[in-house]
Design brief:
By secondary structure, the chain is an alpha/beta fold. The protein is 34% helix and 17% strand. Bound molecules: iron/sulfur cluster (2 copies). The site of one iron/sulfur cluster has 13 residues, from loops. Pfam families: Radical_SAM, Zn_ribbon_HMPTM.
Length: 621
Amino acid sequence: MDDIKLMNAASMQNEVQIEIEKGMEVSEEADQNLIVNINNVRPETSYGESETYDPLLAPYHRSIEEIEKMPTIEQTKTVCPECKLIVDGTIYRDGDNVMIRKHCPEHGWTIEKYWEDYDMYMKMRRYNYYGRGFDNPNYINENKGANCPFDCGMCERHKSHTGLANVVVTNRCHLSCWYCFFYAKEGEAIYEPSIAELDKIFYNLRNQKPIPANALQITGGEPTMHPKIVEIIEHAKKAGFDQIQLNTTGINLALNPSLAMKLRHAGVSTLYMSYDGVSKRANPKNHWEVPKTLEVARKANIGIVLVPTVIRTVNDHELGAMINFALNNSDIVRAVNFQPVSLVGRMPSRLREKQRISIPGAIKLIEEQTNGVISKSDWFSVPYIGGINKFLEALTGEYKYDMSIHFACGAGTYIFLDSDNKIIPITRFVDAAGMVEYLQRAVDEMEGKGRLERKAIAVKTLVGFRKFIDKSKQPKSINFSKLLLSLFTKHDFATMGKFQMKSVFIGMMHFQDEYTYDIHRVEKCDIHYAMPDGEVLPFCTFNVFPEVYRDKVQKQYSIPSREWQQTHNEWTYAKDKYTRNIKELEASEEYRKTYGKMIDYFALPVNGGKPVANFANEKFS
Ligand code: SF4
Ligand code: SF4
């Protein structure tokens, strides 16, 4: 399960110092024999114990009397992190921060950082809108979602269709990441649904109304551990999914290039690949294997999305470097999707305050680390796309795939790599806000009109589009108006493909935890999990309340470890685990080519000139 890092508080009781010590043990072992079983490797934190004051933490340390005087932005419902009681939540402003506070009659106050930039919060909030839920919800009861988030399944209150459906095909994994509690540990039951059970899930998703799920993410554990992974993809394709992505470490593909080819032929279009940093320290999970995975993906023509989980003090100093890495491999890397960490489970407050980072926090660091090339003003919230979507719906009269998640859940921008190595964010030559307002006016004008009239308005609108594009600033290698026009008129993946070949999408997706929980967000969630019992669950109920949803259902469909062993003759837990040969990997041509010859785009004079850290010659010690 590599698209998120949900930190299990229970595994973190010993805090930062232990992480450092653990990291050092691994380094010594690596020095001795260069063969590392990477189970339980922990990244080192960048701040030491001596640090006692951090201005970022100030909003946590005020008195309740002081906090209650802060200006309220809005009221919501949330949960007590201790007992999960649904309680009132207040989202309020504290200087530059947006915070959430809540009070449980039994467990007292909880104060948490919600967004680390008030101005950006208010800007993104403008694009909030309700999408379409389900005409055929799975779970209908007398509550009608009033007990949200405990009426899930989906219920009739939910306000977004399934944008991305996650299907877990195994909980076995070849790694044992220290923060993860998705994979089956030794002796635990194995969850590996049969093809028949998976078919049921796929067709259930495809039968959603009015918009059938169209994008599928096959996940785990490590999904390539499933012996029938290729067959599973074939079945998903047959069920009618247009886009199928595999959420993977990429390690098994690096070891077995022919598997990548088979997966591509079966229908996988994208590898959604964990990548927590360019350096070995920040990314002990797959730093060494990624160069081979990139090469294998190139040959198989599978696009890659790098998925870094961002933890303050752990890898937040490498955000610019990761974007630079993507630019160096932009022939195959389509996107970097940063995921600020979700701190699931009870966690000591000191550690939580230190490691918490929100979308604007990461955006500000990217601005610093890219010399201002990708600045705070270059980002837009995900539901911004809704304006474009509404225009397409009004034009065609058909429901379109929507992106109606809450504005605080996701943000993104496109950056273009021009022929002279200049990096140009899309917002530098497109007036994005003006364009959406312009489209909204066209949508209003089309309201109640017949097909021909709508078409005439659309043509007029598309002709007027050019005024939002500054040709003098657009990348020399593209004609953006032409590209956009064909995107609107054809609206197909071939056009999207052309667009992506010249750009890298930089995204942010912040999943919730008990501290930040806001039902205004979860009721709009469009990233869902589908289960064999027919339930479809928002990401942030599935993972934040595992005892209510994920674990309960998976348990019903799991096989006890002993029984698994009896029915799978050759299987042992130890055999599932991956052992890395660092020396061999570092000597490989792919490794030297990938890390040894990187251009530092942000150090080039054309992009501002100050170097991003160079990790090419870094030692793992
Ligand atoms: S242990 Fe496996 S499933 Fe869990 S995060 Fe690591 S790679 Fe993903
Ligand atoms: S999260 Fe959605 S499906 Fe779940 S209870 Fe709330 S509105 Fe209903």
